[in-house]
């Protein structure tokens, strides 16, 4: 793979007013930019037009992870000081790796109370990147308490309050575990998915629990030196068989979102055969990467200099992606998690 690209090679100018702050009422009414990955040509439409780019026999791969309301607000038990805790990864039944703010005084042994004691936490240790391992104690069912006390961990560039938690979930969200939504999937409705199936397109699901590392900036100049965060994924036997059958019969595998793409590329072998199983992946896809399984991608518009922008550049070419983004800015597309969509095929 190419390792001499710089982070600044993936910069583009984005006016702040184009960052979408609220989701559209109709999920499938977002705009859609089609980028021909072979020619770089762009066309414009609405998301429902995605049907015209899917062929009978293709397999659409969705990520069925479900976002948990992972942001908790509490108080230190000794001083009463306000504390914000963001759940990142479950490390045991009641032990989570977390991001704590402010973190300096949250040393091992520090205790936090949430919801007037409905949920309590104790810092066990400080781990990589200053994250804290916290053991939680409570009465009842943790998920029910979290649903009552927690807030959706919206990205830092979204400043508006989300009125409906379900609007930061895909309609097919199933397995709890993400700290962020696989946002390309937010555009699909149940009706649109039925239309996809009616066209003879298979829909397969994989699971990748999205971590907050998705939003961490690349801090190194040479992108080849960047280390990706790890995320947990699962591929079930029947879904692997469905995806492999598409490739074996000469049809396309189209990922919905960078998380589905990263799962496919992590679980596929050198011959492009998807292996069922589960594990942790820290795969970093950037220009020079040879895709094993992914033929096309439905995705949102990503932050400048982000690993996600590097991934889509690996699929279509950096120059073509940046040209398409410039066109999207000119056409006043809405960007990032609640923004418009792109299909690269």
Tally of individual helices: 6
Task: Give the CATH superfamily of the largest domain.
Answer: QueA-like
Structural class: alpha/beta
Poorly predicted runs are none
- Cα-atom radius of gyration: 20 Å
Strand order of the largest sheet: 2-1-17-16-14-3-12-13-15
Give the SSE string: EEEEEEEEEEHEHEEHEHEEHHE
The strand count comes to 17
Proportion of residues in β-strands: 25-35%
Query: Mean pLDDT across all residues, rounded?
Result: 95
Helix content: 10-25%
Instruction: Give the CA-based shape.
Output: globular
What is the CA–CA distance across the termini?
22 Å
CATH class of the largest domain: Alpha Beta
Largest sheet: 9 strands, mixed
Overall domain count:
2
CATH fold description of the largest domain: QueA-like
CATH architecture of the largest domain: 3-Layer(aba) Sandwich
Describe the fold and architecture.
- The chain has about 350 residues and is an alpha/beta fold.
- It is built from six helices and 17 strands.
- Strand 6 and strand 7 form a beta hairpin.
- The longest helix is centred in the last third of the chain and has 13 residues, at about 320-330.
- It is globular.
How are the secondary structure elements laid out?
Elements: E1 31-35, E2 42-46, E3 59-63, E4 65-67, E5 71-76, E6 82-90, E7 95-101, E8 111-114, E9 119-126, E10 132-138, H1 142-149, E11 175-178, H2 190-198, E12 202-208, E13 231-235, H3 237-248, E14 253-256, H4 258-267, E15 277-281, E16 296-300, H5 307-316, H6 318-330, E17 341-344
């Amino acid at each position: 793979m190419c390792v001499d690209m710089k982070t600044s090679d993936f910069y583009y100018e984005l006016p702040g007013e184009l960052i979408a702050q609220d989701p559209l009422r109709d999920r499938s009414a977002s705009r859609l930019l089609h980028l021909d990955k072979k020619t770089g040509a762009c066309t414009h439409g609405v998301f429902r037009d995605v049907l015209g780019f899917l062929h009978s026999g293709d397999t659409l791969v969705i990520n069925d992870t479900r976002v948990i309301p992972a942001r908790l607000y509490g108080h230190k038990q000794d001083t009463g000081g306000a504390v914000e805790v963001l759940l990142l990864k479950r490390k045991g039944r009641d032990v989570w790796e977390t991001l704590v703010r402010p973190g300096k005084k949250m040393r091992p042994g520090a205790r936090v109370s949430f919801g007037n004691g409905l949920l309590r936490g104790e810092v066990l240790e400080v781990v990589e990147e200053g994250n804290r391992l916290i053991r939680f104690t409570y009465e009842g069912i943790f998920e029910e308490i979290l649903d009552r006390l927690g807030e959706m961990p919206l990205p830092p560039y979204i400043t508006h309050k989300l009125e409906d938690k379900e609007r930061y979930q895909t309609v097919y969200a199933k397995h709890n575990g993400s700290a962020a939504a696989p946002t390309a999937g937010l555009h699909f409705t149940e009706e649109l998915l039925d239309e996809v199936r009616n066209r003879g397109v298979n829909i397969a699901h994989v699971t990748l629990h999205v971590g907050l590392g998705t939003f961490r900036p690349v801090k190194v100049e040479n992108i080849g030196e960047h280390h990706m965060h790890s995320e947990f994924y699962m591929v079930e036997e029947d879904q692997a068989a469905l995806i492999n059958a598409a490739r074996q019969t000469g049809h396309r595998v189209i990922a919905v979102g960078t998380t589905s793409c990263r799962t496919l590329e992590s679980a596929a072998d050198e011959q492009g055969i998807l292996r069922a199983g589960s594990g942790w992946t820290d795969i970093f896809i950037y220009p020079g990467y040879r895709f094993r399984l992914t033929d096309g991608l439905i995705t949102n518009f990503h932050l400048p200099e982000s690993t996600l922008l590097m991934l889509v550049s690996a699929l279509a070419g950096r120059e073509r992606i940046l040209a398409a983004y410039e066109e999207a800015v000119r056409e006043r597309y809405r960007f990032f998690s609640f923004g418009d969509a792109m299909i690269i095929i």
